[in-house]
Amino acid sequence: MGMVKIFVRLRAREITELARLLPNGQREAYEYVCELSIGDEDERVPPRGMDTDKAWAGLQHLLDKAGVPVDIVDCGKPLFDHGWGVTPPCLLTPVDVAEASRLLDGAPFAALAERYDAVELTSAGVYPGIWDEDWALPYLEDYYSKLVALFHAATAEGEPVLTWMA
Known about the structure:
Elements: E1 5-9, H1 12-21, H2 26-38, E2 49-51, H3 56-65, E3 77-78, E4 90-92, H4 94-105, H5 109-113, H6 118-123, H7 136-157, E5 161-165
Antiparallel strand pairs: 1-2, 1-5, 3-4, 4-5
C-alpha cells in the first residue's frame, strides 16, 4: 500500500468532540476523524479532508527546491506520542493554516513544475520512486491543487487542520 499523508479540517464542534473522544481511547477518535475526512456516502455531509496519496514527498521536494517554507510532512503540534498510522496526529492552528495557505498561494504549481527533475528525484530517493513515469508530474499537480484548496477552505473558515501519516 505505502504511506499517505492525511489532512482534515476541523470545526469548533469537531475539535470539542475529538477532545471528548481522545481520553476514552484513540481508536474512537481516529474513527471519528476518518469519518470527517471522507464525509458520508450520499454526500449530505461533504468530506472535510483529503490525503495526498503518495505525492507528499515529491510535493515537499518541489516546495523545498522553490524555497517555499511550508512543511507538509512534519507539520503541526503532535496531540500525543504515538501514531494513528506511521506518525501521531498533529494539529495546525488556524494561524499556521493561514500562513501555509498564503505561502502556497505564492507558489503556483507551474513555478514548482519548473523545478521538476525526474532524475534528481529518483537519485535522491524521494518516495515513492515513480518520477520517471510520464504521469508523475500531473499526479503531483492534482494533489497539490487539492492541498491548496483544502488550506484555502480552512483559512476562509478560520479552521485548524489535523494531519498525520498513515
